[in-house]
Design brief:
The chain is mainly alpha-helical. Helices cover 80% and strands 0% of the residues.
Length: 89
């Protein structure tokens, strides 16, 4: 399991580093979906084998999901623009 974990870390870093900056926000949205699957797998792995690796997968995926939501919220605020108040109308 440790070998798969280390290879997945290197492969993930390689894939993300090759993405152009314009695609980082959509990529973050996709990784939120993937991280939800990783959390379920980590919960199953830590429950069955009582592995610290499963717990680490749950923790890192949770950090990734929260970061994705923060980034998505920031991106949506950027495109929302300024709303006019009732006085300005």
């Amino acid at each position: 399991m440790l070998n798969v974990f280390v290879i997945a870390c290197f492969l993930g870093c390689y894939v993300v580093s090759r993405v152009t900056p314009a695609l980082h926000s959509p990529l973050m949205s996709v990784t939120n979906a993937v991280s939800s699957v990783v959390i379920i797998g980590g919960i199953l792995a830590s429950g069955v084998a009582e592995s610290w690796l499963g717990s680490a997968a749950v923790m890192l995926s949770a950090v990734n999901i929260v970061g994705g939501f923060v980034l998505t919220n920031r991106m949506l605020q950027m495109f929302a623009g300024k709303r006019k108040s009732a006085i300005e109308k």
